[in-house]
Every structure is written in structure tokens, then in C-alpha cells.
Amino acid sequence: MPSPPPRARHVVLPAEARVAPLYAGAFLADAFAIDLPPDAPRETLALARFALGNQAPWIDRLMGMRDATVKLFGLKTSGALRADTSPRVEFFRIYETHDDEVVLGEDDRHLDFRLSMLQRPLASGGRELVATTVVHCHNLLGRNYIRLIAPFHRMVVRSTLERAAKGGWCA
Fold this sequence. Notes:
The chain is of the alpha+beta class and 171 residues long. It has one domain (9-166): 2-Layer Sandwich (Alpha-D-Glucose-1,6-Bisphosphate, Chain A, domain 4), CATH 3.30.530. It contains four helices and seven strands. It has helices at 44-53, 57-71, 78-83, 140-166, and strands at 9-10, 28-36, 88-89, 92-97, 101-107, 111-121, 127-137. A seven-stranded antiparallel β-sheet has the order 1-2-7-6-5-4-3. Strand 5 and strand 6 (111-121) form a beta hairpin. It is globular, with a radius of gyration of 16 Å. This is DUF2867 domain-containing protein. InterPro entries: DUF2867.
């Protein structure tokens, strides 16, 4: 019987992540990791594209509700972000790409966020992918927004990593 796919787990914020200098003063900073199989792509951008491009249907519905709500406050919707011509993975702007890490994110009037997808070795000889989110709020709207979505954010990150693992990390 094949073993079940790995589960995403909460981990300490990685000191080696390129977003680490942003940890100080962040309103939200968290990290989740998942083990990668030996045959997973080595290119971190490919891993990020696969994970973020294969969301569960419930996440798409949640994003639709989010978009309808934030539009009332004049904030950027995922559709508006996708329409931007800057390099993107789904609606996330690509800020940096490296062999071991991709830094994605967006800036808006209520908050700035960065998502690091960091590939790093495990002591066992394998590899893991660590998704680190850092959010800096600009105002009360940003702080209240994060308070509201933080529990959903954690579910989405875990689901995204676990769904990609279940899908075999196909590039």
C-alpha cells in the first residue's frame, strides 16, 4: 500500500529566507513546510507555479468572496492583480527568483505582503518546501483585514502545499 502524501506542518520562520529581514515589525509572519519527494522538480519557480496554480475549488470560492468584499473598500482584487502585466505566479507578483527560493507578493494601500517559497535540504537527505508569509499593515483597515483572514490564510497555505504533494509536484 502506498504511503499517504506528506502533511504540511507549521515551522519556525526560516532565518535563511530572503524575506527574513521583513520579520521585524510584521503584523503576521508564519511558515509552513512540506517534504518533497525525490522526483519533485528542482526549480523552485516550477514548484511554486504548480502549488499556486492548482488550488482546491473551495479556495477559489473563498477568493471570490474576498474579492467581492475588498472591492467595496477600493482594494485590489485577484482579477485586477492577474490583469497586471508584471511577471506573476497566478495573482502573485514575482519579486525575486533564485534556485532555492521565489519571493512573491503585492503592495496595496492597506498592507504589503510577501510570500517566500524556499526549497531547503533536510537532515535526512531529502528536501522540503517552506512557504513563509510576512505581512506589514499600513493602517487599521489592514490590521482588521489580517485579523479576519488569518485563520483562512493558514488553512489555504496548508491546503495548497498538501494538494501539490498529493498531485505529485508535476511541473
